[in-house]
Sequence to fold (327 residues):
Amino acid sequence: MKKNIRPSKLARREFLQAGIGTIGVIASSNYVLGQETKSSDKPKFPGWIDAHSHVWTPDTDKFPLGAWNKKSELKPASFTATELLGIANPLGVDRVVLIQHAPYHGYDNSYVLDCAKRYPGVFSVVAMIDERLPKVAARLKKLKQQGTRGIRIGPTKHADRTLVKDPPKWLEAKGQQALWKAASKLNVAICPLITPEFLPSLDVMCKQFPDVTCVIDHFGRVDVGQKEELKQLTKLARHPNVYVKVSAFYSKGKKAPPHLEVIPMINQVIDAFGPDRLMWGSDCPYQLNNGNTYKDSVALFESRMKGLSKNDREQILRDTAKRVFFD
Fold:
């Protein structure tokens, strides 16, 4: 039996901010807001894809937090899959790539995998794996069988919050080498969360493993005005399997809507990679702060970048993420 789940105050506020016309979006969608689908429903998803969002649940008995966390420290206290969809669906977004939230759950991917299982076709999962442990390939294979399409990596902290021993050489570590080799064989995307100083070492890794699909989060943390760092990012376009998430606008430029100052940087990334290797992501719930909204994140590509063709817009807002994380 399907059950409606009431959105949190955060979700309701964003829902109201979506504005007039959202009723038509809901009515035209084959996905019913706030309800789980059955695998036999075979829903179709004509809307946009959010290629980057985090979720967590206050049900920490079923989905325990990492030992370094307390339930009282969750901010917001709840941001479930249903609450996310309560914000995204009215704005024409009907699929989401869920990124494992290491600060709360470490390497325990059970909640995001559970969300994907409960909402067939709606969510794709980027999990995390401890590459320092033995049998990386076998563990990655198991994660893929559970629904994982990508693995998030990073150079400064492991998902259990311990520090990486040698950040400048983090990709040279035995475990990272094993992970990339396994990802190549299993067709699992590698999704680096990095800052610009690590782009050159990533360049070397992409050359070493040309068959690995590499999806760089949040422009590689390059900000507006960082010309040399942007050159390092666009240099990676020479590797045909490297993609970039144009995402986390709340952290760029003026860090406030309408985010128009980010457009020149986006255009340079489009020129380098092409729209078919870019994917939009909100980075929810972090996009929902200091006056930033989900609506503003979508609108930057949907209506504020006047020079985008219809095809380019569809590639960035849906089709690239669909090929990498859903097909």
User: Anything to note?
Assistant: The longest helix spans residues 310-326.
